[in-house]
């Protein structure tokens, strides 16, 4: 498993910005992942585990440590015998939908996992169609779309402990999942694989689900930019952070405030611009630097603060910055 030096990360993240990794490795087995962590420990290096780079902004200076990009790419149905026995029972005239476990490696692309499940008549994950990312990155943030959270499907996982390199099998509770939250965010553990509980159905129902997946992807491609972005840049507010109440509910949606300011497709710093499709998405028009994107985000924070008295905070993860480059929530 070669550990390479000074590797550009620009093509490995969705913004297409940022500097190099001091060291870079792509372990394709758990043993190699353990060895990579050993290398980092021996050389006293910071570690960053990279997925598809769909939710990160890497500093122009790059990452001064070891970037691990897991190539753990297997997908398998765990209880294959139960799966095969039940295939005949899920005919359209029967209403039963047995539950089947599917295990996917951290490096599997989430879209590929959805397609695998639908091809095998397994339903549930198609609600996340069109959300870019790896299984590792998706569990890390607990991806969400409307009322669906990934944690509703995850039953167990294999993780690796950063300090000891020990492999542990943990259940759903261990993750302490919430909206945009999981215990992986302590950066003490990394995901090796995740196991999801899905519903086995007949081919006809699966064909409808494929249609739904296609429809969600089409809907998303109209609503959101499809490249050079990290999706929503700012997280939604927590209810206690906002003053505005609409229909007796605190207005927590950051895009609401940004929309009111009319920044869509207009506010721009260099080649960094607020998307014309979505007020909470920043895009690189081609030659933006990460610093341009940071400056744009700061201007957005400033405008929300001036008009509404609150400061949005990033959902996008800021990697390799020496100090927090944005305005903190409690700063004026
Ligand atoms: C156009 C667009 C639309 C989006 N829409 C949505 C949406 O609707 N809903 C939503 O929830 N998100 C959305 N996102 C955000 C993004 O898709 C998710 O956050 C995704 O799960 C990121 O996965 P990734 O592999 O790219 O992670 P990366 O961006 O590579 O990494 C994100 C974080 O995950 C950590 N990580 C990655 N792999 C592992 C691992 N194996 N173990 C531990 N930590 C790991 C990284 O260290 C990092 O901290 C969108 C993004 C884009 C670009």
Topology of helices and strands:
Blueprint: E1 4-8, E2 20-25, H1 30-42, E3 47-49, E4 56-58, E5 63-68, E6 75-77, H2 80-87, E7 99-105, H3 110-119, E8 122-123, H4 135-141, E9 144-145, E10 148-149, E11 154-161, E12 167-171, E13 189-200, H5 203-223, E14 245-246, E15 249-250, H6 254-260, E16 268-269, E17 272-274, E18 282-284, H7 290-308, E19 317-319
Parallel strand pairs: 2-5, 3-5, 4-19
Antiparallel strand pairs: 1-2, 6-7, 7-13, 8-13, 9-10, 11-12, 11-13, 14-15, 16-17, 17-18
Describe this structure in words.
The protein is an alpha+beta fold and 332 residues long. It has 3 domains: 4-68, Uridine Diphospho-n-acetylenolpyruvylglucosamine Reductase, domain 2, CATH 3.30.43; 75-223, Uridine Diphospho-n-acetylenolpyruvylglucosamine Reductase, domain 3 (2-Layer Sandwich), CATH 3.30.465; 239-319, UDP-N-acetylenolpyruvoylglucosamine reductase, C-terminal domain (Uridine Diphospho-n-acetylenolpyruvylglucosamine Reductase, domain 1). It is built from 7 helices and 19 strands. The protein has helices at 30-42, 80-87, 110-119, 135-141, 203-223, 254-260, 290-308, and strands spanning 4-8, 20-25, 47-49, 56-58, 63-68, 75-77, 99-105, 122-123, 144-145, 148-149, 154-161, 167-171, 189-200, 245-246, 249-250, 268-269, 272-274, 282-284, 317-319. The mean pLDDT is 95. The site of flavin-adenine dinucleotide has 32 residues, from strand 3, helix 4, strand 9 and strand 13. Flavin-adenine dinucleotide binds at residues 14, 48-56, 70, 106, 131-134, 136-138, 140-141, 143-145, 184, 190-191, 224, 229-231, 317.
